[in-house]
């Protein structure tokens, strides 16, 4: 015989066999059986057991309900999903013994909404992916086979929901992985492996594995991805009869992905998905394509080493002051545009704030600390907003008045238009767009008033404590408060009244949960207790009494408290519903705030760092005067950054850049890519002037990064990436090639590099704008053979034995590498440096045939001094390559060294 509780639990658990069920029991969420073992191990809580019937006990582990967020975070991080079973009401229904429980929410990595578990300035995306007939990279499939992919994504904490269909035939998987790289989703839904299609699954798996960030992949039943199921789900959710309004009619793969995603979200969010108010269908062709390698190499949103925002391009650019502004900027940086007009509209906004520094400062003063309006409103829609979220919305709305006031004072027509909307006093004179400006700051006075009247100034954190609703909002609530006030007053005065009446100085009135209010008299005085005292409890030194009157007042107070909580809960839910009903206006305002925040932030960065507005065109010419690297210029402390020009056009398409080590080659070619990228997200750029012919893709092949984890050698990775570039670049692309061919023998490398440049130059339709940094001086010959190739080099000045790096890019080829010089700077032992110089001199004299025997026959002789100047242990320490040691090896080594000096 199992207990009723056990049966209730098992009924729920059966629906979520692979998910950890947190079962609400009073002040705890309990887990049982294997779940309990997992929770105990992952969350470091005690594993106990609980009787579930005669002589039967099962493992049990519980976490306190008020701290559950932290435990959920640990479980999610450890790769588990969590279903939260809540009690429904506080009393069992008539005739039943148990309070019913249902699963309210299933928390998965992609469906987090807890503010504490989400990064503020980044979205938390969940993606659904469906792929048809994918192509295995590297094999050729018969042309004409239809293949494509549908990819949908959502962030339920902000309400974003979008879908796309990728059908450009040849290269679906690659495009998919580019989108995944952009979105960096926390969770990916993919049709469960169908045994008939293992190849498909493994291809996609490998495409996903190639992404750097670990994505949690959730297999989902294939029928969920079927077109009809998916379509019906979408139609039902939006309450429409056709998907045409969302732009995805006729795109079955986009529908399948979006519909499957929606089903999954419905499965996990039992309280509804009101925040998903629309679906945006987009095409990846609207945006500049950036693959994973390029995002990484250019360190757009995080550094390669360390993975921090600090030190990345975003780190320099992000002066936003609100979380929604931060998220918008990050999205923009991941998705540069290809449309001159749209970019100019963005730049107009930046320019307006750039020129109006006083109002910008005022705006930023108001935005600072405004908080996350977007996520608060979404929490209202989901019905999970806490009192502090409503206070946040109220305070944010209150700040809008200030922003509107400053816009009214501004002389800039644009500022007035964006802030005040089409009805503002003076829309900008020559807006061509006939569409009304729907994205202005709507102060939502109705909501502001409601929240001001309904919610207390400083409400308690949860509805478990009374005081959330402001006095004056509800006559009924005020009535209860009034009625209890007298009773409370009476109880408060009871102690002194009774002391006087009985003459017992030490008489006390107290309260505890079991007996309620009582009068306490010490044992010594208990004789003096009056007749109407009823003894309730005897303690060692005292007696506790009640009186009928005291119980009456007590009932008044206690019932009132319960009634207050109930009524406040009800009023609160009504307020939430009213806010939720206006969510679209509030969210439009949040979006407008994000736009303002980003524009003002970019203006701020532009002024602080002396950036200029780029001139955009579609003419394929890049003309940058005195450009700078936005990140490196910030990192330099001593010397100033040397600005450099760059010019690329269809006629001068390929630059072969030579120059010594450490001279600034890599810096320059990256900075050109970054300036183009900044221009194409609508930002000012670090230069004196910049004309940017928009590019459709930026490709980078940079340095040797170790990919042992992927099971490919350095050189293999380099070649795979180069192959990809040559296959996919167009004449509108920008190619950043840093030392291609370096990873193999000199001759192989040179030969490959040479052939690559020739191919880019000669291939019809290619001739992409290319910056090629290399140490192969032989490549400078190409400029004489190919009309659209030019040589540039980085200048250095020689002062005796020393080399001064000028970091100045100049036309022409470099003549020397100064590698040995850099080796000395790096602290290679003197003997090695001078020997290298000897061999180098000989090599230069004898040509590439190798050093002559005579030189090699006289190696430097090392003589050990009689008394070694350096302790061998220290010498060994110095020579140790710490990076190459595993932690265990390091520990062993440390142990060994210590033994030797003991
Ligand atoms: N324009 C510049 N102004 C000032 N300092 C610069 C400039 N360009 C580069 N530097 C400095 O020189 C360092 C080396 O630059 P970079 O890595 O671009 O050299 P490189 O020519 O690519 O060297 P290698 O051939 O070894 O790869 C940078 O880290 C930076 O500190
Ligand atoms: Mg370099």
Largest sheet: 6 strands, mixed
N-to-C span: 68 Å
The DSSP helix count reads 29
Low-confidence stretches: 134-146, 423-436, 863-868
The best one-word shape is elongated
Task: Give the beta-strand count.
Answer: 26
Explain the overall architecture.
The chain folds into 7 domains: 4-107, DNA repair protein MutS, domain I (MutS, DNA mismatch repair protein, domain I); 120-286, Nucleotidyltransferase, domain 5 (2-Layer Sandwich), CATH 3.30.420; 339-444 and 582-609, MutS, DNA mismatch repair protein, Chain A, domain 3 (Orthogonal Bundle); 475-561, Orthogonal Bundle (MutS, DNA mismatch repair protein, Chain A, domain 3); 615-816, 3-Layer(aba) Sandwich (Rossmann fold), CATH 3.40.50; 828-856, no CATH class; 872-901. Strand 3 and strand 4 (56-64) form a beta hairpin. It is elongated and about 120 Å long. A 6-stranded mixed β-sheet has the order 3-4-2-1-5-6, sandwiched between helices. It has 902 residues and is α/β, with parallel strands linked by helices. 42% of the residues lie in helices and 17% in strands. Mean pLDDT is 85; it is low at 134-146, 423-436 and 863-868. Helix 16 runs antiparallel to helix 18. The longest helix has 34 residues, at 548-581. The structure holds adenosine-5'-triphosphate and magnesium ion (MG).
């Amino acid at each position: 015989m199992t207990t009723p509780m056990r049966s209730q639990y098992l009924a729920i658990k059966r629906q979520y066999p692979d998910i950890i069920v947190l079962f609400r029991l009073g002040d705890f969420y309990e887990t049982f059986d294997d779940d309990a073992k997992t929770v105990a191990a992952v969350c470091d809580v005690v594993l106990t057991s609980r009787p579930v019937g005669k002589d039967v006990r099962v493992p049990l582990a519980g976490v306190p309900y008020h701290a559950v967020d932290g435990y959920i975070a640990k479980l999610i991080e450890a790769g588990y999903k969590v279903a939260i079973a809540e009690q429904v009401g506080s009393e069992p229904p008539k005739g039943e013994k148990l309070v019913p429980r249902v699963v309210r929410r299933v928390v998965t990595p992609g469906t987090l909404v807890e503010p504490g578990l989400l990064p503020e300035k980044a979205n938390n995306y969940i993606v659904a992916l469906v792929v048809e007939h994918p192509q295995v990279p590297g094999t050729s499939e018969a042309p004409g086979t239809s293949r494509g992919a549908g990819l949908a994504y959502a962030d339920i904490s902000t309400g974003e929901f979008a879908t796309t269909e990728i059908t450009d035939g040849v290269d679906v998987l690659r495009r998919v992985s580019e989108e995944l790289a952009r979105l960096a989703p926390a969770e990916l839904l993919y049709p469960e492996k169908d045994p008939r299609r293992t190849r498909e699954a493994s291809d996609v798996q490998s495409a996903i594995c190639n992404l750097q960030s670990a994505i949690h992949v959730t297999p989902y039943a294939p029928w969920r991805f079927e077109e009809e199921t998916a379509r019906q789900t979408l139609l039902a959710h939006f309450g429409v009869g056709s998907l045409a309004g969302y732009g995805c009619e006729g795109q079955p793969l986009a529908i399948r992905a979006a519909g499957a995603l929606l089903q999954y979200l419905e499965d996990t969010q039992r309280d509804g998905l009101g925040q998903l108010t629309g679906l945006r269908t987009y095409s990846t062709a609207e945006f500049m394509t950036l693959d994973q390698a390029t995002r990484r190499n250019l360190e757009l949103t995080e550094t390669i080493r360390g993975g921090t925002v600090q030190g990345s391009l975003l780190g320099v650019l992000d002066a936003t002051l609100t979380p929604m502004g931060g998220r918008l900027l990050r999205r923009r940086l991941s998705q540069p545009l290809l449309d001159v007009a749209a970019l100019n509209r963005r730049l107009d906004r930046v320019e307006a704030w750039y020129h109006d520094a006083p109002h910008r400062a005022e705006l930023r003063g108001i935005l600072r600390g405004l908080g996350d309006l977007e996520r608060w409103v979404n929490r209202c829609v989901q019905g999970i907003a806490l009192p502090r979220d409503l206070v946040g919305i109220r305070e944010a709305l209150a700040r809008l008045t200030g922003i509107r006031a400053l816009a009214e004072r501004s002389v800039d027509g644009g500022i007035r238009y964006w802030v005040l909307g089409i009805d503002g006093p003076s829309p900008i004179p020559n807006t061509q767009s006939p569409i009304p400006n729907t994205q202005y700051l709507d102060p939502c006075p109705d909501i502001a008033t409601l929240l001001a009247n309904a919610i207390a100034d400083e409400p308690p954190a949860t509805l478990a404590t009374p005081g959330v609703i402001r006095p004056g909002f509800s006559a009924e609530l005020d009535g209860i408060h009034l009625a209890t006030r007298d009773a409370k007053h009476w109880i408060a005065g009871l102690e002194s009244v009774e002391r006087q009446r009985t003459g017992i100085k030490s008489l006390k009135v107290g309260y505890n949960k079991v007996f309620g209010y009582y009068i306490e008299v010490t044992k010594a005085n208990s004789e003096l207790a009056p007749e109407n005292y009823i003894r309730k409890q005897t303690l060692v030194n005292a007696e506790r009494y009640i009186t009928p009157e005291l119980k009456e007042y007590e009932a008044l107070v206690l019932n009132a408290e319960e009634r207050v909580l109930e009524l406040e809960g009800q009023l609160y839910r009504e307020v939430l519903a009213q806010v939720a009903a206006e969510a679209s206006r509030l969210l439009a305002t949040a979006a407008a705030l994000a736009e303002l925040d980003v524009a003002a932030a970019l203006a701020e960065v532009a002024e602080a760092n002396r950036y200029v507005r780029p001139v955009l065109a579609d003419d394929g010419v890049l003309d940058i005067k005195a450009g700078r690297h936005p990140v490196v210029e910030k990192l330099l402390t001593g010397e100033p950054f040397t600005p450099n020009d760059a010019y690329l056009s269809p006629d001068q398409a390929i630059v072969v850049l030579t120059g010594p080590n450490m001279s600034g080659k890599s810096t320059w070619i990256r900075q050109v890519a970054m300036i183009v990228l900044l221009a194409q997200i609508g930002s000012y750029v670090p230069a004196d002037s910049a004309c940017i012919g928009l590019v459709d893709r930026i490709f980078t092949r940079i340095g040797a990064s170790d990919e042992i984890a992927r099971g490919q050698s350095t050189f293999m990775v380099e070649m795979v990436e180069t192959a990809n570039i040559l296959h996919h670049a167009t004449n509108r692309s920008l190619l950043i090639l840093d030392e291609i061919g370096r990873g193999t023998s000199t001759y192989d490398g040179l030969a490959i590099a040479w052939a690559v440049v020739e191919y880019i130059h000669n291939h019809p339709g290619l001739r992409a704008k290319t910056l090629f940094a290399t140490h192969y001086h032989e490549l400078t010959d190409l400029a004489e053979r190919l009309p659209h190739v030019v040589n540039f080099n980085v200048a250095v000045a020689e002062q005796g034995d020393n080399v001064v790096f000028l970091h100045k890019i100049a036309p022409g080829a470099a003549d020397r590498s100064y590698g040995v010089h850099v080796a000395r700077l790096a602290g290679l032992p003197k003997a090695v440096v001078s020997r290298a110089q000897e061999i180098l001199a000989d090599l230069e004299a004898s040509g590439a045939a190798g050093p002559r025997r005579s030189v090699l026959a006289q190696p430097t002789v090392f003589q050990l001094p009689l008394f070694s100047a350096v302790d061998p242990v220290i010498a060994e320490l110095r020579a140790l390559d710490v990076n190459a040691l595993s932690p265990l090896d390091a520990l062993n080594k440390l142990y060994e060294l210590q033994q030797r000096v003991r």
